[in-house]
Design a protein that fits this description.
Length: 114
């Protein structure tokens, strides 16, 4: 029985590695069934948990990570929020609020010197 479990586990981990660790235990169970292994879905889940396998999420179709060509600006303020003179440092924040009519945007702009 132990050799059988090791055989199934090695197959599952090898198949998961080929699929870049994306599939969960259900897809790996189907792969094992198609390959001729006689095992249950819960057994596959338990074997993968014992092996320490965790699936990772795949990118949704059509989704690409943004590649920014903008330069990274330096942090000039560096969390020093007490400024001695007015009109030297201005800060702002924006948030969106869902309302019955749609989205409203709330913006706050402050002078740190006053």
């Amino acid at each position: 029985m132990q050799k059988r479990h090791q055989s199934i586990t090695s197959f599952l981990l090898e198949r998961a590695k080929k699929m870049k660790s994306v599939p969960g235990y259900r897809k790996l169970w189907i792969e094992a069934q198609d390959e001729g292994y006689r095992c249950g879905k819960n057994q596959v889940q338990r074997l993968l948990q014992e092996a320490g396998y965790r699936s990772c999420t795949a990118l949704k179709p059509g989704y690409r990570r943004a590649v920014s060509t903008l330069p990274v600006l330096p942090n000039l303020l560096n969390r020093r929020f007490s400024v001695g003179e007015p009109n030297k440092v201005w800060v702002s924040d924006i948030t969106q609020i869902r309302c019955k009519e749609g989205w409203l945007y709330l913006v706050a702009v402050m002078d740190l010197g006053t």
